[in-house]
Amino acid sequence: MTEYYASVDLMRTIHDIIHKRGRRIDPVSIDELLKFGVDYLDVDIGTASSIIDGVYTIEWVQTAKLDLEAGTQLPLDTTYCSVVLAENELVHTNEADKDERFKDHKSFQTYGLQSYIGTPIVINDVVWGVLGFARKTARREAFSDLEIEMVRMMGTAVETVIAEQAVRSDLMRQRDDMALIAYTDSLTGLKNRSAGMEMLEQGLATHYKDSCCVVAVIDFDHFKSINDTYGHDVGDQVLIAGANAMNDSLRGSDTVIRVGGEEFMIILPYTDKDNASAVLERVREAVEKTVVTLDSGDVINPTVSIGATTSETGDDVSSIYRRADQALYKAKHAGRNCIVWSK
C-alpha cells in the first residue's frame, strides 16, 4: 500500500508539472520534469534527446555536475541511448562496469557513467529519442521498481509535451499559410488590396505619424483595349510582367500592391517628394521598357499612369488614397505614361 500511494504521488507530481497552474502544455515543462528526476533519482544529469539519422542531440538537459548543454550533438554510438534503442525498452544499470551491455561501451569509457536509466520517447509510433538519467558513481542502491515506473511515466509525459508542441506548430504553420493566401494576389504574387490597406492603415497610425510617407496609385494605360484585342490571358501576362517590373524598381522599404484589375498602389515609407519622385520615375520607365511578345509575333509595350501624394497630419487610408487617386485621374488626362502629384 505504501508503494501504491508513493506511485500515486509521483503520478500527481508529474501531472502537475506538465499542467502547472492550469497552463497549456509547454516545452518548459520538460526542463522541470528533468530537474525533478535528477533530484528524485539522486543522479548527475537528466536529458531528453532527439535522434535523427544517427545523430544524438540534447534538446533539454538538467545537470548538477556534467558540463553538457542543450544543442550538444554526439554520435549515437557514444551514448547509452544506443543501448536503449537496441533493446527498444526501458534500460537501467547501477554498475555499468560490471554490466555486459555497458562496460565496453564508448560512453562508459569516455564519461565513466556507472548508473543509468533511460526509456524511448515514441511519437506517433516512431522513436523520436530517449529520456535518460545518469550518474558518474554508483548509487547506494539499484533503481527500485517505483523509480523505474516513475521514469516510464516521465517518458510518457515528455511524449505528450512534444506531441502537443508538434500539433501546435503545425496549426501555426497552417494559420500562417492561410494568412499568406488571404493576403496575396493570386495572379501577380504581390500583396492584395486587403493586405495593402491594412499595411497603410497601421503605418499611418504608428510608423508614419512623425515622418513623411508617399502613396502612389498606378493604372495601366489603355488596358481595356489590350483585353479586347488579345483576350484576358494576354492581359494577365501584361499585368504579371508589369508587376514584376515595378517590384524590381523599388527600394527594399517600398511595397507594391495590386489593388484590383489593372490598378496598383505603391507605399514608400520614410521618404520625401524628391526621393519618391526618383523611385516612381524608375517604376514608370521600367514598365515602359517591358516587352510582352505574343505567339503571333505581336509585341505589347505597356505603360502606366501614376498619381502620387505625400502624407499629411491627420491622414487616414481614405484621405491619402483619395488624393493619390485624384492625381492619377489628372495623369490620365495629361496624356498618360506620366507622374502627377497632388497639390
Structure, explained:
With 343 residues, the protein is an alpha+beta fold. It is built from ten helices and 14 strands. The chain has a six-stranded antiparallel beta sheet, with helices on both faces. The protein has a six-stranded mixed beta sheet with strand order 7-9-10-8-13-14, with helices on both faces. Strands 11-12 form a two-stranded antiparallel sheet. Strand 13 (304-310), helix 10 and strand 14 form a beta-alpha-beta unit. Helix 8 packs antiparallel against helix 9 (273-288).
Largest sheet: 6 strands, antiparallel
The side-by-side strand order for the widest beta sheet comes to 3-2-1-6-5-4
Number of helices: 10
Derived from helix and strand composition plus strand pairing, the structural class reads alpha+beta
In total, the number of strands is 14
What is the global morphology?
elongated
Instruction: Report the helical percentage.
Output: 40-55%
Uncertain residue segments: none
Over the alpha carbons, how many angstroms does the gyration radius reach? 33 Å
Calculate the terminal CA-CA distance, rounded to whole Å: 89 Å
Mean pLDDT: 88
Q: What is the H/E order?
A: HHEEEHEHEEHEHEHHEEHEEEHE
Work out the strand percent: 15-25%
Show the helix and strand layout.
Layout: H1 2-18, H2 28-41, E1 45-52, E2 55-63, E3 73-75, H3 81-87, E4 91-93, H4 106-111, E5 115-123, E6 126-135, H5 145-182, E7 191-192, H6 193-207, E8 214-220, H7 223-230, H8 232-249, E9 255-260, E10 263-268, H9 273-288, E11 292-293, E12 299-300, E13 304-310, H10 317-333, E14 339-341
Helix pairs in contact: 1-5, 2-5, 7-8, 8-9
